[in-house]
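User: Before I run my own analysis I want an independent prediction to cross-check against. Here's the chain; please return only the structure tokens and, at the end, one sentence I can use as a sanity check.
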Amino acid sequence: MLKNIDIQNYRAIKHISLNNFANINIFTGAANTGKSSILEAVYFLCNVNIDTLNNILKIRNFTDEKDMFSALFYDYNINNIIKINGFIDNQITCSISSGNSIVYDSLDNWLNIIKINYDAGFNGSTYSAVLDNKLKLQMKLDDNFFPPDYSAEYLASFSNYDTLKNNLAKILVNNNSKKLLNKYLREFDDNIEDIMFIGNIISVSYKHLSNAVNIKSMGKGFYTYLTILSAVLSGSKIIIIDEIENGIHFSLMKKIIDNIIKISEEKDIQFFISTHSKEFLEIFNNQIQKAYINIKLYNIYNKNNTINAIEYTKDQISSMIYNQNEIRD
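Assistant: Structure tokens:
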């Protein structure tokens, strides 16, 4: 489990340190205060994967922009060094440092190469990565460097359909994982019978329907829920969800929150979630009262052009909402 993170010169953040992360961590605050930047930094730190930077650019829809890489740096200053440090399970201390040069200003116009280094105190191993001209991180990775259990998945409101397909493909070939997935899906809607691929299309079969339904024709709430489940059951131990409320009717939030709590408790999954929704926070507060896991809320705010955070425990969250204090600004 990720315990803390220290971020320097990444996007909107000059410097911020966040400590004492819980099983479920909620980030709220006004727009453009750096919540998404924090979630990306968590993903960057925990997800040792050759497509990490590529995925972050896709999440922001930056892959065709001329400023795609300078936008990673605080104040667009490519002479800054991006550093992201964290501590995981009392075993692994990691850092990421970017080189001080822009990589390219478009997919077809290379300027030079950015270096991303991961340093870890795990069995004396070291790790480094360099981008090649196909936007892939080429890694030099010692054996036993990073346990696979520390993989993270970033789920945005415009989550990658291909990622969902890849995760489901892993799950559906494993009978135990498939049974568990269907169990969770029936908790969401007891009319669901099965989930499958028909050709290359993710489809769901329902009771009393002759034909399976294309997932793309279903509601955003179900799509978000399925995306979370598929990430968990495919092996991710850290789930990052940006603006969880997008496209989800408030009547579905309770089911999603209940199952996030249940999944975190049963499978020791750590969640990092951002939200702007008052309804989400109120429902979340109601549901966490019966939870046995540790839960934190971080209010992110900008003061004098510096990103700061106020940390709330479960009891403090309840007190703030009970007294109708605004914790989103």
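Sanity check: Residues 48-147 form one domain.
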